[in-house]
Each structure stands twice: as structure tokens, then as C-alpha cells.
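Phytanoyl-CoA dioxygenase
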Amino acid sequence: MLVSPTAMAFGAAVTLPQSMRRISSTSKHASSPTRIALQRAGCVLALRAVYAAPRRKSGTSRSFPVTEEDRQRCSTDVQLDFERQGFLKVPAILKEEEMATLSRAIEELQSSEKCALSALQHQVRVQFGAVAASQCTTLAACRKKLAALEKRGEVSFLQYFNLHRLSEELRRIAMSPRFSFWATRLLGVPRVRLYQDALFVKRPGDGATDWHSDLGLAPFDTNSFLTFWLPLTAVPPRGGSSLVYAIGSHRDFALPFHGDLDEDLTGRYKLWRTGSILPGDASIHHGWTLHSAAAAPSSGPLRVAWTLGFVADGARLHGARGGPAEDAVSYEPWIGDCGRGAVVDHPMVPLLPLVDD
Ligand SMILES: O=C(O)CCC(=O)C(=O)O
């Protein structure tokens, strides 16, 4: 069964996980005075046990093909729902064996010291800037630098960026016909490119994920962008930290046109809380959809999710912009090869296979 936003969206009012102030779409992290000051001026965790979370049964395919079920589920009505609401929950988009393959590939990388260090360094960069990050060259140094912020709940998660660049298996999964199919259908475009993947590890006691939209952090001059949020650990119905969406916010042109960056938007949108979500399921959102997630209770389990960001083939680079470069690691290695305003056609933003109708 596929849960469409219209089926569930307006059922119950939900409480805001945190204020909708500072909704500037430029950062995902819980507010830290240090980081805000910086903005104004201009794999530690072993997850083996965590991945033992319940997984859905059925199917044995390891090639992530487009199935007849995908074609039936991604109906015109579902595409319209996504267009209107800006998000969609798809239970069991991955079969049990596919999920096991994905978890294994991620676990292998994520437990490596190299990945752990770069996730911590990224966090230091987000919180304190690039110079501080370049000075934290060991796990211990990074942890020390972040300790006070973590204590105050001002770190929202650790982010392991672009694991597909390190693993053939993950690249194959990220660029599989299954994701190509859903992404192109939901965006209504012929082809998409893989922009980035990121592993979000929210640890017990980590702060809320601040309201933001993903396109605000990406260098593309397009509206055709979406993100798959794929949990690797089960999120319980209550007290979990799955995504909360501001319904229809991706179509709210008036907000950037008339709005103030620091405006309090509480009450402007109805919200939809994803609630319980299992490994194998996907929560998909449009690039402009505002979303957030609650803080992780300090007594709770790790919450781990892998995300994939896809952009329409043919998108151009937009001009330079200010604001924090929170996702800069995704475009720094290739953006210099493309001119401002150029159509992005770069091997580091690879084109997914064409899927026929
Ligand atoms: O997992 C989270 O808390 C944040 C994820 C997110 O911002 C995204 O998928 O775009």
C-alpha cells in the first residue's frame, strides 16, 4: 500500500517540532549562536547492532529494477499528490534483500575511520567554519571541538556525504532504474542526475533538524529537484524523529517573493508528520518543500537515514550566492569545471538510466 499525502495529510493537526522561525532554507542544523554568528559574518559510530532493526519481507531482487508494482503505484494520482503536497511516503519501495544489500554497503563504509573523520570534520565546518575544520585532523580533536555544542543539543546529526563516490555498490543502488523511475515520474522530467547522497546519523540527545528546503542549499537554477529519505533504522510511531513537512510549501512562491528571511512562519502551513517509518520505506520530498525533524530523545536509539538528491537533467548552475555552504562538499569538487549559468553535464553529477514508460 502506498500512503499518499492526501490520504493522511489533513487528518490531525500536529505540533511544531520547533519554531518555524529561522526558516531561511539555508541550514538544517539546530541553531547555534556560534554558527549564526559565522553566517552573519559572511564514522565514529558503530552501527552494526542498529541495523538489526526490523525489515520488510518479500522479493529477492538485488538489481533494483523497475517492477510492475512500481508502475502501478506511481500512478497519475500519486504524481499529482506529490505535485500538490510536495512530499510522498512510499512503503516498501525497497525489498528485503535490496535493503540488506544497501545496509551492508553503508555499514562497511560508515564504520571506517576515514568516513567517521570526514563526518565529524564536516560538522566542525558547519559549526565553526572551514579554518577550524582544517585544524581538526583527528577524531579526538573533532569530538573535543564539538563537545560543548553537543551537550547543549546544538548538533542535529552527523552527516556522511557522498558515500556513492567511495562505493561501487552504493553508486549502483543510487543510480538504479528504481530510483530513476520514481524521480523522473514525480518530477515530470525525462531524466535525472544524481547530485548527492548523505547519511544522516541522529544520535540520542542530538537537536532538532531545523526547517529548511534542500534546493536552498544546492547550486542549481531549477525547480526540478527531489530527495529520497530512506531510513536504515525503524522510526517508532511516537517519539521518533522522522521528517515533518510543511504541506504545499514548495509551491509557496509568495514566501521568497514577499517574505523576510527571518520571518516566523508558524501557522502559515499545515504540517504532515511522517510518523513511523521502516527500513525499506521511503519518504520523498520536493526540493523546495520545507521540512524538519524533532530532536532525538537522549534515552532513545540512533536514527539513521540515507538520502539521495536528484536534479533534472538539463538544470543550469545558478550564480554565486551568499549564505552558509552546508552542502558545499557535494559541489565543490566539480563546480569549478562548469561555468556560471552552464547546463550541468559533469561526471560527478552522473546521469541516471533512461526508464521507458
Ligand atoms: O534526517 C534529517 O533529520 C534531515 C534530513 C534532511 O534534511 C533531508 O533529507 O533533506
